[in-house]
């Protein structure tokens, strides 16, 4: 007599289980609760539940978003064992869920947002005027715009940098429409920031990383800022290991290399620099879909050192953003903005644009120097108001600013060693 084949139907499994085991009422309550939660959490409600079938797509641990987002679920048998053993949990380990019917898709209402975008402010206007609705299909990616509203606002509120803002807008509109994706290929995201220190390059690089991670262009919001010392070791072989480790840590996010020209030595026989740049160049192509590398520095130095050291680098950095130096008007705006951000008070009439025009040669590092100027201004202010009416506290006067400027200039005259990249370029 042939043995009856084992049924894959869950109902029959439960019937058989109930005959073989003397279940108590509490056993049925637990089993029912587990089944209900599993169906609801995995969005299987109102769907027939059957055994394995090679002709249909199964819910696989590696593809089901449930297991990605809720890794601590009792159903994720990869990381944890099922905490509650029941008739259902025993059967569930041996079977997969399959859908006998295709889900009903409710058609979306189509809506066209007819606009022209020339500035970041135009994008913010679109966000302000159009709320995103899941039931509507738009001609633009309105959902992504809403997701990056904070970053767009921060960029738009930055003083000056109009050329940079236009470049970022061009890149953003290109990527948000997925124009960089072709048949079996995609364009590089790697970007160059040209400009002097103190113009906000690091801050902008972080903003770009956040925007693109929220848009799904990058998988995560990883941001790592590195210099020569983070990539190049003291002896051969270790530089490759060190560089690869940094790149692996940044996959899915942004690797920001400040003063990138320091990676290239004026000595053509510098094997350490060559080893680093060779690995970097290779990684720019191998990981162009899951890595964005941003380098920063003066244009002339990058052209004659970094890009000259490895001919393959230049073609991989297709995006070039230029950060113009701040003028006297913009320096004044930056200083006043920093004062207000720190909760201090300054009357607009106290500090004129002409003051910065006369002293602009002392502010070669622009925004960074404005931070220093404010720090020294507060120090002088603390000395000036000591023992006086408390109402004077945190109210900056022109005397405070002049006193802070004198401290800044005095400290500048103190001898300091040259930046580390100078050794690589000229020794």
TrEMBL record:
Record's keyword terms, sorted: ATP-binding, Nucleotide-binding
One of the record's GO molecular function terms: ATP hydrolysis activity
Alphabetical list of Pfam families matching this protein: AAA (PF00004)
InterPro entries: AAA+_ATPase, ATPase_AAA_core, CbxX/CfxQ, CbxX/CfxQ_RuBisCO_ESX, P-loop_NTPase
Residues covered by the AAA+ ATPase domain: 187-316
Protein name: AAA+ ATPase domain-containing protein
The family this protein is said to belong to: Belongs to the CbxX/CfxQ family.
